[in-house]
Amino acid sequence: MSGRRLAALRKALARLREALAMTGSSDIARDAAIQRFEFCAELSWRAVQARARALGRDCRFPKECLRLAFEAGWIDDEAGWLRLWEDRNLTSHTYDERLAEEIHARLPAHLERMERLLAALDREEG
């Protein structure tokens, strides 16, 4: 798997962590954190896809890749990841102030999930 894909995910997760540290300051900061979350979610499933291909397996869609990651032991919270992906889809396709607040409140847990995935993929790579 390309180390560049993992490096991109690592950087995006760091930027999301920065945004979450600032989100109490404004709606703009909250919205920026949600946008960074969307990037991280996309990079996460793409990293799983790349690792799967390196192992001779294939997954073409996010939920398919998440199931594969769960089976491979790269993620341990399938329900949490399904919620993460549902949140990502909601933020990408609709905007509602109340929904933004709800999803924003779940971002720290989503960040931790994605960081654990990165650590698992790093171990696989190493």
Compile the SSE list and pairings.
Layout: H1 3-22, H2 27-54, H3 62-72, H4 78-93, H5 97-125
Helix pairs in contact: 1-2, 1-5, 2-3, 2-4, 2-5, 3-4, 4-5
Keywords:
single chain; 126 residues; mainly alpha; Four Helix Bundle (Hemerythrin (Met), subunit A)
- The CATH architecture can be named as Up-down Bundle
By DSSP, the count of extended strands is 0
> How many domain units?
1
Per the CATH scheme, the topology name is: Four Helix Bundle (Hemerythrin (Met), subunit A)
Global shape = globular
Summarize the biggest pleated sheet. none
Report the average pLDDT across residues: 91
**Percent in strands:** under 5%
CATH class: Mainly Alpha
User: What is the CA-based Rg, rounded?
Assistant: 14 Å
